[in-house]
User: Which sequence fits this backbone?
């Protein structure tokens, strides 16, 4: 759990990045309608949540920065007994005042009038350009006279790059649940008949252990389905002697996990599967060993390309010179994605990869990133030895960058061939 003092420190850190005589407005996510009279489960906007920890919709956070003083306002849904009968209890103004360390808590019915008052003598406004919201459209009209309109999402993203101890603890909790889910999948795969059954087993563990949401739609891809990178149909049969690529992670109290394991349906890898899997696993381990503060993510990716290309040459899948094959994008056919991404409140965390001057941001202590090399060989690729066709393998772990190295937060999730086969 993240304490209120941490949210207050985040707002102070954000205020230091803001221009004087400015107003910043962050709004909550809207409740999304699924179909007539039904809604999707509500999930708060990550930037808004990061700055205040408030989980209700129809709310907003406003930060006023003057010459020397900073003032924060939290706007919340007004208490309404009839509405709460249908959608659940709300904190309301009094409840929010008792919890949140802001200068003032107001109700959303006063938002427009209060904003008009707060805009006096302001030179600039910060809003989240990544959000599509009519409240922000109204704000743009109200503030068209201001000298500048700036995107707050990049500044919040910079703060989100390095995780606090409390954030890391939540990611570790998510991973402990995800570990149990993947291990159960390894145990049960050969007893089940379909991808959807295996997905159900995984997500049952998520919910049973208190992670009420997956961090993304689970991928359970058997055989050639693994060669569709974002395969989420999960409606095919599990075939003996095929591999299953399982990319699944839960979200615990808003913090994500993101794990991929590739396992044999039968419980035993074939010779060809072992050869390709062992090569990819050795690449993943070497890339993880390189992770530390100061390293560039693009360098990790470039090295992963070299290693995977050498591996494919040794297996007879590619022929030629490593550098020429990479330059001519021959490897891209089998390794089309990057080595990894930031992870945190979002599974693909929105922290920037470049600074405002376009320079790559090096790894910093406290960042959490995925490392996920993979090779994908379509069943119809006749240029590849037959024994490798139809195989897609990805191995993915969640890595915490430290000052002198890194910590594999998901190291307890089995990935060695003998460990997977033992389950």
Assistant:
């Amino acid at each position: 759990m993240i304490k209120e003092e941490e949210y207050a420190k985040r707002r102070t850190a954000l205020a230091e990045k803001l221009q004087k005589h400015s107003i910043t407005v962050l709004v909550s996510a809207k409740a999304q309608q699924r179909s007539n009279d039904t809604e999707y489960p509500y999930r708060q906007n990550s930037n808004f949540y990061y700055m205040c920890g408030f989980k209700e919709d129809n709310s907003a956070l406003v930060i006023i920065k003057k010459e020397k003083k900073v003032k924060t306002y939290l706007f919340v849904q007004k208490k309404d007994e009839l509405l709460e009968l249908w959608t659940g209890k709300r904190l309301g103004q009094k409840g929010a005042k008792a919890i949140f360390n802001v200068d003032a808590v107001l109700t959303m019915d006063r938002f427009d009038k209060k904003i008009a008052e707060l805009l006096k003598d302001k030179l600039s406004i910060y809003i989240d350009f990544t959000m599509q919201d009519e409240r922000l459209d109204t704000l743009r009209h109200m503030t068209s006279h201001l000298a500048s309109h700036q995107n707050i999402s990049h500044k919040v993203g910079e703060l989100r790059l390095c995780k606090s101890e409390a954030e890391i603890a939540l990611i570790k909790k998510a991973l402990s649940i995800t570990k149990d889910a993947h291990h159960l999948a390894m145990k049960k795969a050969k007893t089940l008949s379909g991808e959807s059954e295996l997905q159900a087993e995984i997500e049952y563990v998520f919910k049973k252990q208190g992670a009420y949401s997956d961090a993304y739609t689970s991928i359970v891809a058997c055989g050639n389905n693994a060669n569709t990178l974002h395969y989420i149909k999960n409606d095919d049969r599990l075939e003996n002697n095929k591999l299953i690529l399982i990319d699944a992670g839960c979200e615990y109290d808003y913090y994500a996990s993101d794990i991929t394991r590739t396992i044999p349906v039968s419980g035993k890898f074939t010779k060809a599967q072992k050869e390709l899997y062992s090569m990819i696993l050795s690449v993943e381990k070497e890339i993880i060993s390189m992770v530390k503060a100061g390293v560039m993510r693009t360098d990790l990716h470039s090295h992963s390309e070299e290693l995977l290309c050498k591996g494919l040459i040794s297996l007879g899948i590619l022929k030629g010179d490593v550098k020429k094959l990479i330059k001519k994008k021959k490897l891209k056919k089998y390794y089309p994605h990057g080595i990894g991404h930031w992870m945190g409140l979002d599974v693909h965390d929105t922290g920037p990869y470049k600074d405002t001057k376009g320079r790559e941001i090096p790894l910093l202590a406290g960042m959490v990133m995925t490392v996920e090399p993979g090779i994908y060989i379509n069943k119809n690729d006749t240029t590849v030895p037959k024994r490798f066709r139809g195989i897609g393998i990805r191995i993915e772990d969640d890595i915490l960058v430290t000052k002198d190295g890194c910590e594999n937060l998901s190291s307890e999730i089995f990935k060695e061939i003998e460990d997977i086969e033992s389950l």
Remarks:
- The chain is about 35% helix and 20% strand.
